[in-house]
Design goal:
By secondary structure, this protein is mainly α. 66% of the residues lie in helices and 0% in strands. Helix 1 crosses helix 3 and helix 2 crosses helix 3. The protein starts with 10 loop residues before the first helix and ends with a helix.
Amino acid sequence: MGSKYTKRWTEEFKRDAIALVDSSGKTVTAVARELGISSESLRGWYRRAKADQGEGTPGELTSAEREELRRLSVLTTSVVDSRPI
């Protein structure tokens, strides 16, 4: 069972890990194991990086699109909450 502690990785570490996957020819799982991180974390970082570069799967949102969606969701919630009943 996992711990309650969540490790926060720097953006530089994430970029380097993604670059290592691309340059080494190794699988995401193998690179994650070498770095001592969760393969699911590295896989998520890798997928987001590829989407941001326009190489993601069709329909996958870029980081900018996800941020805009998050912002609009907060805005919608505040508008709905401020409406009188």
